[in-house]
Amino acid sequence: MYPISLQPKLLRVLQEKEIERVGGNKSLPVNVRVITVTHRNLEEIVQNGTFREDLYYRINVIPLHTKL
C-alpha cells in the first residue's frame, strides 16, 4: 500500500499525465496504463482515512473480483 504521503504524487501523474524527474525543472509527458491489485478492502481503508478517496475512484475503473 502506498504511504499517504505518496498518494497525491501518484494521483497527479494519473490526472496530469506528466512527471518531473528528480532534480529536473520541466515536466515530461507520459502515457501509462496502471494495473492495481490488493487483498484488502479499499472501501474500508478509504473510510478510515489511510487511502485517498480521489485516488481510489481514479484507479477503481474496472473492478475484477476472484475467489481463491
UniProtKB/TrEMBL annotation:
<keyword id="KW-0547">Nucleotide-binding</keyword>
<dbReference type="GO" id="GO:0005524">
    <property type="term" value="F:ATP binding"/>
</dbReference>
<protein>
    <recommendedName>
        <fullName>Sigma-54 factor interaction domain-containing protein</fullName>
    </recommendedName>
</protein>
<feature type="domain" description="Sigma-54 factor interaction">
    <location>
        <begin position="1"/>
        <end position="68"/>
    </location>
</feature>
<dbReference type="GO" id="GO:0006355">
    <property type="term" value="P:regulation of DNA-templated transcription"/>
</dbReference>
<dbReference type="InterPro" id="IPR027417">
    <property type="entry name" value="P-loop_NTPase"/>
</dbReference>
<dbReference type="InterPro" id="IPR002078">
    <property type="entry name" value="Sigma_54_int"/>
</dbReference>
<dbReference type="Pfam" id="PF00158">
    <property type="entry name" value="Sigma54_activat"/>
</dbReference>
<keyword id="KW-0067">ATP-binding</keyword>
